[in-house]
Amino acid sequence: MTRSLPELYPLRFEPIFRRYLWGGRRLGTELGKPIGPGEDFAESWELVDHGDDQSVVAAGPLKTWTLQRLFHEYGGALFGAEFDAWQAVERPEALARRFPLLFKFLDCHRDLSIQIHPNDAQARGQSPPDLGKTEAWIVMHAAPGATVYAGLKEGVDAAGLRNAIETGRISEVLHRFEPRVGDCIFVPAGTVHGLGAGFLVAEIQQASDTTFRLYDWDRTDAQGRGRPLHIEESLAVLSDSPGPVQPVKPAFVSESRERLVHCDKFALDRLRMDSAMPVGDGQSFHLLAVLEGAVRVDGDVGGDEVKRGQTVLIPAACEAVTIEPTRGGATVLDIYWPSGRGESDRA
Fold it and tell me: What is the set of domains in the chain, with CATH numbers?
């Protein structure tokens, strides 16, 4: 007898909080997250399927289901038309069966380390194997003078970076700039990067937790110990194009939709809404993250509206779902799987 699964609907998940020395309180004070006491709340993982880190459905018939279970049970009905192609790529089974994206909010109360992530081919060689990590940030708040480090200065190559590390001058070879609220910064795997103090950002990335730390601003803990650095690992995964990264120039798809990133790992659009609009066509899931204002989502059982700092996953099987701003206007990220890229596992 075939087991009947509940019908899919727009899904909200419980956030998972990460506490690091660079975190603060903005996840609670600005985004309304239910953080507890403490001054080091750094990340709110909104959507994740990575080992023991599992998003859990917050409401409706699928309440308490993990994202991993949803992905396994519903397959293409959740993911979309590229599901079979994604599963068929030659890689360890655990990676093929993982929902490939992770979304989070970050409170950068203090400087983050300068770091780098491997690409897919390099990450498969880790123990345990992982996905690579290409990511994109969208700036939600930037304090005066807050600085992003993204890529190396023009003309600096791997040899120049090694020399800067060995002579204690790494900060001198990093490309840096002060982004504005609303800027999107695309960071491909193999790019040296870091967020300075004073940011609240939204981040979409591959579902990976492999990070190599190059520099940590000479910080030490109460016992005088620094966090581990991974110099040789970092240099080994440095991109052949390590040069400066600039904010993305949006491409206007329509009056209300801007295309920020369309790569082989994810597609990222920004919706600037003043009226109702449909999202989805049955070809891919759509993860909606509200940056400003609030929206009502047809079929959402998690509450009256999706507010700033909240997310909802629209399964592909829901096809076109109407979303409508409830407070005059809203800015929403729309993240989905790029058409024709299910087969991609390139470096």
Answer: 16-237 (2.60.120.10), 251-336 (2.60.120.10)
